[in-house]
Amino acid sequence: MAKSAKTAPQAPKSPSKTPELVPQPHGGALLSGGQKGNKGGPGRPTGALRARMFGALDEQLAVASDIASGQPVEMQEINLPDVLAHVECPSCGGGLQPKSVDDMLAKITVRGSASAGERLRALDFLARYGLGAIKAVSEDDVRSRVERTLDVIAELVTKEQYARIVPELQKIWTEKGE
């Protein structure tokens, strides 16, 4: 008689805990840990997100252009005594001094231009935005790829077809001005 396989006693299953509901600002609620086995959705479609980002960048191009060209774009507070140190009296040519304690503590608001570093970053941003990523391709790499392309064409078509195709491709690759 065959012995029956013994199984270890199973621990009683504990009741599964339902995640708590977390109130949301819009008035609804979400489960704190999500639903078991649910990975969630894909999120916002990348095309829609890209379109919104492109629109936002497009709106800010004028600001980036002003920064890059050194136009005053940023409001800055400056202590009045710091300005007076660089101003001369029109009648006597002497330096101007604050008249009172209030003048010593006074601040004026001016619109200032960006620093040289900020201007360079704005130029870099405009170039990348306008031109896109520039990939340098060497002449040797182009030659190698053209040769490999011709090899593939030679394998796939008859000699007569190859003899007609190659001169047409040579015209494309030897055109001037493009």
Topology of helices and strands:
Blueprint: E1 21-23, E2 29-31, H1 46-68, E3 74-79, H2 80-84, H3 101-105, E4 107-112, H4 116-131, H5 139-156, H6 159-173
Antiparallel strand pairs: 1-2, 3-4
For the residues shown, what is the average pLDDT?
80
Structural class: mainly alpha
Treating each run of at least 4 consecutive H or I residues as one helix, how many helices?
6
Helix content: 40-55%
Number of strands: 4
Strand content: 5-15%
Largest sheet, if any? 2 strands, antiparallel
Distance between the termini: 91 Å
Uncertain stretches: none
Side by side, the strands of the main sheet go: 1-2
Order of helices and strands, N to C?
EEHEHHEHHH
- Shape by Cα distribution: flat
Rg, rounded, reads: 36 Å
What features would you describe in this structure?
The protein has helices at residues 46-68, 80-84, 101-105, 116-131, 139-156, 159-173; strands at 21-23, 29-31, 74-79, 107-112. The longest helix has 23 residues, at 46-68. The mean pLDDT is 80. It is mainly α. The protein has a two-stranded antiparallel sheet with strand order 1-2. A two-stranded antiparallel sheet has the order 3-4. The protein contains 6 helices and 4 strands, in the order E-E-H-E-H-H-E-H-H-H. Among the domains are: 47-73 and 113-134, no CATH class; 74-112, no CATH class; 139-173, no CATH class. It starts with 20 loop residues before the first strand and ends in a 5-residue tail after the last helix.
What's the short story on this structure?
This protein is mainly alpha-helical and 178 residues long. Among the domains are: 49 residues, no CATH class; 39 residues, no CATH class; 35 residues, no CATH class. 46% of the residues lie in helices and 10% in strands.
